[in-house]
Every structure is written in structure tokens, then in C-alpha cells.
Amino acid sequence: MADHSDNNAYWAANMRIIKISLVIWFIVSFGFGIILRPLLAGIPVGGTDLGFWFAQQGSILVFLVLIFVYAARMNKLDKEFGVDE
């Protein structure tokens, strides 16, 4: 049976990964796609401006990358704490 302090350390590390992922998600979707869109409007990307690109395409790509990074980090964390499959 796992030690109580190991459980707390595992969940603290898990929550840290989740919080970092959510902050990145918020910055990319709300920050770049909405708040900073006027500032990014002058930068051309693929026939449109960078602000529009982040709002329509870039945020989706970042979300996909976050999913794979989260899965890889959790697999590493699970192996570190001996709870992997």
C-alpha cells in the first residue's frame, strides 16, 4: 500500500500539471484570441492576421498539443510514483 505522503505528492504534482495546462489554455484562447487580438491584428499569417488566426485555428492547435503534453507528463508521473499500467 502506498504511503500517505506519496499520495499527497502524486496529487500535488498532478494538480500542478493541470493548473499549468489550464493557464496556457486560458492565455491562448482568451488572451491571444480575444484580449490581445487588436494588438496582433497587424501581423499577417496565412492570408489573415495573427489575432484572427489564434482565435480560429491557433488555439485549437495549442489545445491538441496540450492534450499530448498532458498525457506524456502524466505517464511519466505515473511511472515515477509506481501507478502506471
TrEMBL record:
Domain (Sodium symporter small subunit): residue spans on this chain: 8-84
Claim: Protein transport is one of the keywords in the record: no
Residue stretches spanning the membrane: 20-40, 52-72
Listed InterPro entries: Na_symporter_ssu
Keywords: Membrane, Transmembrane, Transmembrane helix
Name of protein: Sodium symporter small subunit domain-containing protein
Organism: Aquimixticola soesokkakensis
Classification lineage: Bacteria, Pseudomonadati, Pseudomonadota, Alphaproteobacteria, Rhodobacterales
